[in-house]
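Onboarding guide, step 5: your first structure request.
Type a short instruction followed by the sequence, for example:

Predict the 3D structure of this protein.
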Amino acid sequence: MSNQQTYNVPNHFESLFKILSSSRFLNKEGLGGELPFFIHSYPVNKHAEVETNVHSLVKRLENEGIEILEIQLYQLCIDLLKKENLFDQILQQETRLPKQRLLRVLNGPLNIDNVIIPEIHKRLAENPAKILFLTGIGSVFPVIRSHTILNNLQTLVGDIPVVMFFPGTYNNKSLTLFDLLKDENYYRAHNLNDYRT
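The system replies with structure tokens like these:
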């Protein structure tokens, strides 16, 4: 049975709460030396419901004393463009430029190595979080690709678990955004949908 047919948002988020609040998860036990990177994939048609439940999940975990840093990647990109006074200019260019040219323009102010990853690292350093949530990955495609952010984060994040909420499918080998766009293979993340406490 596919992810689409069996995904029940309340059930999945109840299960996520149990997993993420468990000492096994927080202590990074049973990872066999692998990075504490986790992907929670979900059907695209449940996106709005999942977003609402992510906010509730953050509140529930924080009520248990588990601080969460949620980085919404789309908002992060907007913040960075506004900080450089480029946001309005990019909005104007968006309608005029061909998509590939716009991506090249964005590659400077939203460069993954020099801008995005250091900004995530800075926010982590300023926040005593026990878990990092990455959301909004569908909204920033193709400016930021899921495997790229995970590959680049591994040099900076190792102390705390990272959970990426992914609209699509992760089969422990590859990421398929929106169940349409196959990303490069990524083997290093643990599938939260298969995780057992």
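Each response can be followed by summary notes, for example: The chain has one domain: 35-194.
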